[in-house]
Amino acid sequence: MRRVYNFSAGPSMLPLKVLETASREMCNWRGTGMSVMEMSHRSKEFESIIEHAENLLRKLMGIPENYAVLFLQGGASTQFSMVPANLMSGGKADYINTGSFSEKAIAEAELFGSVNIIASSRDRNFTYIPESFEISPDADYVHITTNNTIEGTCFKEIPDTGNVPLVADMSSNILSEPVDVTKFGLIYAGAQKNLGPAGVTIVIIRKDLLGRHREGTPTMMRYDVHVKNKSLYNTPPTYSIYMTGLVLEWLDELGGVRAIEKINREKAQILYDYLDESEMFFTPVEKKYRSIMNVPFKTSSPQLDAKFIEEAAKNGFVALKGHRSVGGMRASIYNAMPVEGVRELVDFMKKFEMENR
Ligand SMILES: Cc1ncc(COP(=O)(O)O)c(C=O)c1O
Q1: d(CA 240, CA 256)
Q2: How high is the pLDDT of residue 1?
Q3: Do 16-253 and 255-355 share a fold?
Q4: What value does the mean pLDDT take over residues 239-256?
Q5: What does each C-alpha distance from 107 to 29, 69, 95, 139 come to in angstroms?
Q6: Nearest CA to ligand 1 atom 15
Q7: Which of 95, 104, 198, 356 has its CA 20 to 30 A from that of 74?
Q8: How many Å is the Cα radius of gyration of the chain?
């Protein structure tokens, strides 16, 4: 069997061990005689699966008891509206604009109330993270995107927002390095990068923020309803939750978030070191704010970029095409990408540079 190195921004690579376990358990989950896909979400077997996933996530992220963990649907994009629907009770929120996904979150929030963009890196094409801003004392919350998947930047320090709850879209860097959950009022993340397959979205919410939803919020959009029903108000994405549990087990066995952080930093360093010395490839992102998950890079010619992407794919390095809004290339090197994948990619880039000078 030939597996490629898949640099897709999401859905992205999953650990081979997880896929193998899932394939072994596909038709008969632990003696039940059925697949997890065929199982009632109200069965005790599925209850054990969702509890296991939640317990592992709590352990790996150090999520305290005063936070609820939800497994929802609708992707991170649905959170762009669930967050204001549930938290914008005073009609005002602060947003920091660091890229396309922040802009999408802002556009949704504007449907609910007054959005104050307290800082933006739009002036330099989102190649940095703004560090100076003032939080409005009467804001219901402050929203940030901790890692910008398309632009390849990330917050190196989590801002201190005082008494105003901090809400974070952590879709593309959750579990990549340790974070202090207590700094946040709410964290959300689509699973399809570091957690599992598409279909499930994780929400971690401080319990005192529940019940602040605006009047008329549809039932399915209310965090308090999902918390009360332990993510089983309706049929949840059962198979994606099971797969997420397997990914979390894999990460736990590896040594948890500190262990994966070390591996992630090593991978990023290998790639950035080469980009810094290369005469052909470069990254537009300011050094201080470089993401360790998504690495955008380019040559000086779109034709050469296209040739590189094509030849890379032929050599087993796939999905390196940059997002259509920025062009060039992007290597997404999430948790499941092994160090060898990045090393081999850099060897290939060096060879390409030599041959195309
Ligand atoms: C940072 C970030 N936020 C939001 C999204 C949108 O997620 P979804 O497609 O799950 O709605 C993505 C998807 O790539 C993302 O990277």
Answers
A1: 21
A2: 76
A3: no
A4: 98
A5: 43, 26, 11, 17
A6: 171
A7: 95
A8: 21
Using a 6 Å cutoff on CB, does residue 149 contact ligand 1? yes
Q: Give distance in angstroms: CA of 29 to centre of ligand 1.
A: 31
* Ligand 1 pocket residue status of 291, Cβ below 6 Å: no
Segments making up each domain of the chain, as ranges: 16-253, 255-355
* pLDDT at residue 69 greater than cutoff 80: yes
Task: Say which CATH class 255-355 falls into.
Answer: alpha beta
Cβ-contact 262, 178 below 8 angstroms:
no
Q: Which CATH class is domain 16-253?
A: alpha beta
Cα separation, 8 vs 36, whole angstroms:
27
Q: Give the span between the Cα atoms of 85 and 108, in whole angstroms.
A: 10
Enter the DSSP assignment of 28.
Answer: S
Which amino acid, 18?
V
> Could you report the per-residue pLDDT of 127-163, keeping only the tens digit for each?
999 999 999 999 999 999 999 999 999 999 999 999 9
pTM for this model (two decimals)? 0.98
C-alpha 82: how far from chain center: 17
Contact 8, 318 (CB under 8 A): yes
pLDDT tens-digit series, residues 318-355: 999 999 988 999 999 999 999 999 999 999 999 999 99
| Percent of the chain with pLDDT strictly greater than 70 | 100
Ligand 1 binding pocket includes 190 (Cβ within 6 Å): yes
Q: Could you identify the residue written with the tokens 């762009």?
A: 80
- Coil, helix or strand at residue 154: strand
d(CA 241, CA 50): 7
